[in-house]
């Protein structure tokens, strides 16, 4: 059963100097955020599977080449334990090499890490083979979390090929012979085989999430979605949390420069209200946004390839937004999605 009721969400309160000095408890979503020096390493949420997932992680989308090792090693040194990747990112091998080196150097133990990767669209009928391929590339014996990347089964192109086949009509070749229920059965088998500890979904709408809950023997532990001040998705977030599904924001900063470049979307990082709050709290806009998500019980995996921002994104536990400021950010919602794969697929999968 999901650990959502009778669990304690612990958040630091502020002393006169703005630094946390005690803990107040909130009945909520299984979060445990201890106030100790290594808060980044130890702050976690208890998933419905019973395993703990760090509240803040590092997403490695678009992190490539030699920069990966330096980034991951530095992240581990400053306390990151949660790393999010995907087969589609095509950098699992680089992440695996970095993790192996960190373990070999004694910087971290495997059991202290939380590694997530994802099943790509073209592999929906081949969850076992795809998972084993990811494990091989990551140099791991098991995954902490395996997600269905999109609720969109597409034409199979071979394990590791990860193509999005576009038909002659210019539209993504969606496979109508594979149901999301059968995909989920394949995910559940991975748990029974000991290859995966927790399974979840990504980019699922409220109704698709409801359907998954109805047919699941093992309920999804996580729904990883785009959510940020311009796209808050309160109904979906509340529905997931009500049913014991942890919400993770995969685009917690609105995609920043990456989504602006790829999809032409507008980032909330330049919002004047958020900039004003950043000045008020003596924090960056990114830190304000990450803290806002955390205070509504949403875990975050901001992406960056810059060491300075990696450090900055970790400093979100030493201050607390007031209720008034949380409400102010709530008023910024524009229902504006920034991650728009339909631009390349020729079809809006969210309609």
Characterization of the model:
This protein is an alpha/beta fold. It has a single domain (7-345), classed as Alpha-Beta Barrel (TIM Barrel). The chain has helices at 39-42, 67-77, 92-104, 127-138, 180-192, 206-215, 234-242, 256-263, 272-281, 285-295, 307-314, 323-330, 342-345, and strands at residues 7-14, 20-28, 31-32, 44-46, 52-54, 58-59, 82-84, 114-119, 143-148, 196-202, 222-225, 246-249, 299-300. The strands form 3 sheets. It has an 8-stranded parallel beta sheet with strand order 6-7-8-9-10-11-12-13. Strand 1 (7-14) and strand 2 form a beta hairpin. Helix 2 (67-77) packs across helix 3 (92-104) and helix 3 packs across helix 4 (127-138). The chain starts with 6 loop residues before the first strand and ends in a 6-residue tail after the last helix.
- Flag low-confidence runs: 1-28
Order of helices and strands: EEEHEEEHEHEHEHEHEHEHHHEHHH
Rounded to an integer in angstroms, the radius of gyration calculated over CA atoms is 19 Å
Would you tell me the overall average pLDDT? 88
Quick one: how many beta strands?
13
Overall geometry comes to: globular
Structural class: alpha/beta
Strand content: 15-25%
Q: What strand line-up does the widest sheet have?
A: 6-7-8-9-10-11-12-13
Q: Summary?
A:
This protein has helices spanning 39-42, 67-77, 92-104, 127-138, 180-192, 206-215, 234-242, 256-263, 272-281, 285-295, 307-314, 323-330, 342-345, and strands at 7-14, 20-28, 31-32, 44-46, 52-54, 58-59, 82-84, 114-119, 143-148, 196-202, 222-225, 246-249, 299-300. It has an eight-stranded parallel beta sheet with strand order 6-7-8-9-10-11-12-13. A three-stranded antiparallel beta sheet has the order 3-4-5. It is an alpha/beta fold and 351 residues long.
